[in-house]
Specification:
Length: about 90
């Protein structure tokens, strides 16, 4: 039986920042969709820094900085990075 690959998605932003918590909540909402589509396990990590906008990393590789217009755009941005990471391995 193959064990699913594990990937970390990390969000970094200012503590108590509206945009940080918006992107964070969207990440938790789309996590299952991405896990099923890519047959992986995702661990969401959170960190704080004095950034103007939140930054999201997948396995220490920058995926994006800022706030996508909606959850659907978030999925598309994350899928671009996941496609690149999964192809490498």
């Amino acid at each position: 039986m193959n064990e699913k690959k594990k990937l970390a998605i990390k969000i970094i932003g200012r503590k108590e920042d509206y945009w940080y918590y918006t992107v964070r909540s969207w990440l938790y909402e789309v996590k299952d969709i991405l896990e099923q589509e890519y047959n992986i396990n995702i661990e969401i990590e959170e960190d704080y820094d004095e950034l103007d906008l939140p930054a999201v990393y997948i396995d220490n590789e920058l995926a994006f900085i800022g706030v996508p217009g909606e959850e659907g755009y978030l999925i598309e941005v994350l899928k671009k990075s996941l496609d690149r990471i999964v192809k490498r391995e």
